[in-house]
Design goal:
Elements lengths: L1 H14 L5 H32 L4 H37 L4 H16 L4 H24 L11 H18 L6 H12 L8 H5 L8
Pfam families: Tim17
Protein name: PXMP4 protein
InterPro entries: Pmp4 (IPR019531)
Length: 209
C-alpha cells in the first residue's frame, strides 16, 4: 500500500504543476472525448440496431460495439488534436486568438472526420444543424440581420418538415439511410396491416399467415 500511496501523491503533485497544464489538458481532453463518444453513441446504436436492423443477436451486438468504438475513438482523437494544436498556436504566438480555434478545428476535422462513413456523416449533420442556428443568432446579435418581430421558429419548423417529407416521398435516395429507415417505419409501414396483431401490437407480422 505504501508504494501505491506514494505513486498517487506523486501523480497528484504532477497534476498541480502549472507548467504541464496544457499537456495534461490535452490528455484529459482525449479521455473526455472517448467517454462522451461512448455515452452518446451506445444508446443510439442500441435503439437503432434493434429497431431497424436484422440479423442474429451476436451480429447486432457486434454492430453496436463497432459503432460505439468508432464514435468514441474519433471524438477522442479530435479533442486531442484540437487541444494540442490550440496549445501549440498559443505558445507560438504568446496569446490565444479566435482564428486559432477555427484553424485547429479545421485541421482536426479534416484528419479525424474527413472519411465519408455513416458515423462521421451523422456527426457532421448533427453539427451542421446547430451551426446554422448559431450563425443565425450571431447575425442578429451583430446586427447583420434585423431582430425578427415574431419568433421565426414556427416558420423554420414548417419549412424543415415540409422539405424533409418532400425529399422522402420523391427523392428518398438523397436522405441518410437511418432517416430513411425511421421515415419508412412512420409513414409507410403505418399503411400496411393484416389483422389486429400487426395493427396495434406489432409493426409487421413475423408468421406466414
Amino acid at each position: 500500500a505504501g508504494p501505491v500511496r506514494a505513486l498517487l501523491r506523486a501523480a497528484n503533485a504532477l497534476l498541480q504543476q502549472h507548467r504541464y497544464r496544457a499537456a495534461l489538458a490535452v490528455i484529459k481532453g482525449f479521455r473526455n472525448g472517448a467517454v462522451y463518444g461512448a455515452k452518446i453513441r451506445a444508446p443510439h446504436a442500441l435503439v437503432m440496431t434493434f429497431l431497424f436492423k436484422s440479423g442474429s443477436l451476436r451480429e447486432k451486438l457486434k454492430s453496436i460495439a463497432q459503432a460505439t468504438y468508432a464514435h468514441s475513438r474519433n471524438l477522442a482523437y479530435f479533442v486531442f488534436t484540437y487541444k494540442g494544436l490550440m496549445a501549440a498556436q498559443s505558445r507560438l504566438q504568446g496569446k490565444k486568438i479566435p482564428f486559432h480555434s477555427f484553424l485547429a478545428a479545421c485541421i482536426g476535422g479534416w484528419l479525424v472526420f474527413g472519411e465519408n462513413n455513416p458515423i462521421n456523416s451523422q456527426i457532421i449533420m448533427y453539427l451542421l444543424s446547430r451551426i446554422l442556428f448559431g450563425l443565425s443568432r450571431l447575425a442578429v446579435e451583430k446586427g447583420y440581420i434585423p431582430q425578427p418581430r415574431q419568433d421565426p421558429f414556427p416558420l423554420v419548423a414548417a419549412l424543415v418538415w415540409g422539405t424533409v417529407l418532400w425529399l422522402f416521398e420523391y427523392h428518398r435516395q438523397t436522405l441518410q439511410p437511418s432517416l430513411q429507415s425511421s421515415m419508412t417505419y412512420l409513414y409507410e409501414d403505418s399503411e400496411v396491416w393484416h389483422d389486429l396483431s400487426d395493427f396495434l401490437i406489432y409493426n409487421k407480422r413475423t408468421d406466414s399467415k
